[in-house]
Write a structure and sequence with these properties.
OB fold (Dihydrolipoamide Acetyltransferase, E2P), 20 strands, 2 domains, alpha+beta, 355 residues, 10 helices, six-stranded mixed β-sheet, binds adenosine-5'-triphosphate
Length: 355
Amino acid sequence: MSIIVEQLTRRFSPGGSPAVADVSFHAPKGAITSLLGPSGAGKSTLLRLIAGLEVPDVGRVLIDGVDCTSLPVQQRNVGVVFQSYALFRHMTVRENIAFGLNVRKLPREQVEARVDEMLRLVQLEALGGRHPGQLSGGQRQRVAFARALAIRPRVLLLDEPFGALDTRVREELREWLHALHESTGLTTLLVTHDQQEALEISQHVVVMSEGRMAQSGSPEDIYDRPLSPFVASFIGGASVLRGHVLEGRVAVGSLALAVPPAAREGEAVHAFVRPHDVKLARTVVGGRGLSPVMGTVERLKSVGGFVKVLLRLPSGDEVTVQVPRTEFDELGVTEGDAVHADVRTATVFVGDYAI
Ligand SMILES: Nc1ncnc2c1ncn2[C@@H]1O[C@H](COP(=O)(O)OP(=O)(O)OP(=O)(O)O)[C@@H](O)[C@H]1O
């Protein structure tokens, strides 16, 4: 069951800027599609429009080719999981999972069998008799998944389902969701502001910014071929270097990079450099990269297995470089030292823009 969204627009106040503006995309059948973007980008509103919890001003939602735009949420047959568990506190785990089945007035034996099946699927067989207050956050969220899946939804819609959990549980549940998806094969939409989560778990990514779709494609497309400065800066934590087109090259400080097509002499450019796309060296060793530049180590920050090096370039621009700890130890630099920075790759955009 694919999800197709056509020109969806939703404005909460007349004359105000739309929360979702003219968004169209296709979430492929059987895949996990992430809706990724910063806070306020319109991700949740978009998901709610697809679920039928919001009504669009303009546009259509098609699930498996059927126009659902005017159907109420109960008739769309979608499973929804929110960040806050939204479980019924006075009901046991079993009763929570059975809720949607009882609403649909299924015979008791069928309800019991389906609840057992769901408890097995989310690996909580032993906890069916507990109340939500007696579960960990991760377990509660698995119950929320079981409840959403119990009704055999056509698609699964997830709004930051792991947002309220600590990092370790979040990572565990990410793995768990991946396995769950492999076993159910359900078309899934996942709202997240966490690029790592989106790139790791999904086969398709829709990047949102200020209510609009900034880019959609595979995680590799989004990461390797950002189409706008916004996507280049939002994904991958790139540093931005300012420069201009000079004699057929992009001059960014003392770096000379390849000119993008259609760039004119003298035009302003911005080069986006990812933290692991720069190689540091004490001396120039026939750089493999675009061209080496001298920088000063301004700040060092050790983060687990790697060190973040903040470099100040002669142009005044700053570049953050991520160096594996073993490599950093061999390099042996301290704050204030001069180093050669070999920029291996950069994404260059021409012209003025606002991120
Ligand atoms: N019910 C509402 N009434 C008025 N404005 C709303 C409502 N819901 C959302 N908005 C506004 O719409 C915009 C998009 O909000 P939305 O929650 O969809 O963004 P988001 O990308 O999901 O953000 P977050 O990651 O912080 O949840 C925001 O400016 C928000 O304030």
